[in-house]
Amino acid sequence: MQQAKSVVIAIAMIVGIAFTTSSVMAAEGMYSRGNGNKANGENIFRNGKGDVPACTSCHGETGTGNDELGTPMIAGQFFTFLFKQLEDYASDKREDTTMFVMNANAKGLSRQDRIDVATYLASLRPTDLGSDLNALKEAGVEVGIPYKGRALVEYGSPIRNDGYDAPKDLGSPGKGVPACKSCHGYAGRGAPPVYPMIGKQRYVYLVNQLKKWRDGSRANDPMGQMQAVAKKMSDEDIHNAAAYLTNASPLTNGNFFRPYMK
């Protein structure tokens, strides 16, 4: 009897693993990784091209960004999102108000170059992601509270019109901030081809971009979605959400496979 139980458990485990693996493989095929020339993309990333400097000069050797410079993690991001941002910079649909170089850089590359760079970056699997919140605090950066940010990212804040004083843990009471998860997936792990990974992104970059969405200085979002959401967020909401997202694990309980990743 015990032996029979062991066999059943083993079969169940194998089926479960096969199901999980096939689900992840299916997710892998749901978005484009880009069909550009990765070798050319890497060369531009590391060495630049013509008057365009190497991407590493701002985004770091591994493409994981820099909190001091306010630059984002771009390595491992989805191809479609990376390519769109480069196209938006090239057409001035998005303005670089961080390092003030991306518009000129994108224009200095051909469309094929932009495809190649996005293809190369999307193929990377960096490990040194996110920000060290303690180090940022010590440097004098205002840092939010991760557990409050998680409530906002996963559940949003309720719409209240009856004077009820909603718990502050739920975000701005009464403003109806939608859960980040509804578009960007669990823990901000992304929902290609439209919504990028914001989990494990640099803290300073997340804070800055949310404030730019809020004041309208960034406006290249699909259907104005991010502008509408950010306008409902207080500074506290922004800091809390960024504090959670920057170190949020993309893995759900019982799933050892990172979505969209090999």
Structure overview:
The protein folds into three domains: 1-30; 38-123, Cytochrome Bc1 Complex, Chain D, domain 2, CATH 1.10.760; 133-245, Cytochrome c-like domain (Cytochrome Bc1 Complex, Chain D, domain 2, Orthogonal Bundle). Helix content is 47%, strand content 0%. It contains twelve helices and no strands. α4 runs antiparallel to α6 (111-123) and α8 crosses α12 (235-245). The two termini are 39 Å apart. The model is unreliable at 7-26 (pLDDT under 50).
Key features of this structure:
262 residues; mainly alpha; Cytochrome Bc1 Complex, Chain D, domain 2
| Computed Rg | 20 Å
Number of helical regions: 12
Low-pLDDT stretches are 7-26
Number of strands: 0
Our measurement of the CA-to-CA distance between the termini, rounded to an integer number of angstroms, reads: 39 Å
Write the element-wise H/E pattern from the N-terminal end onward.
Answer: HHHHHHHHHHHH
User: So, CATH architecture of the largest domain?
Assistant: Orthogonal Bundle
CATH names the topology of the largest domain as Cytochrome Bc1 Complex, Chain D, domain 2
Tell me the number of structural domains: 3
> What sort of overall outline do the alpha carbons produce when their principal axes are compared?
globular
Overall mean pLDDT score? 86
Helix content: 40-55%
Quick one: CATH superfamily of the largest domain?
A: Cytochrome c-like domain
Biggest sheet descriptor: none
Strand content: under 5%
CATH class annotation of the largest domain: Mainly Alpha
**Main structural class:** mainly alpha
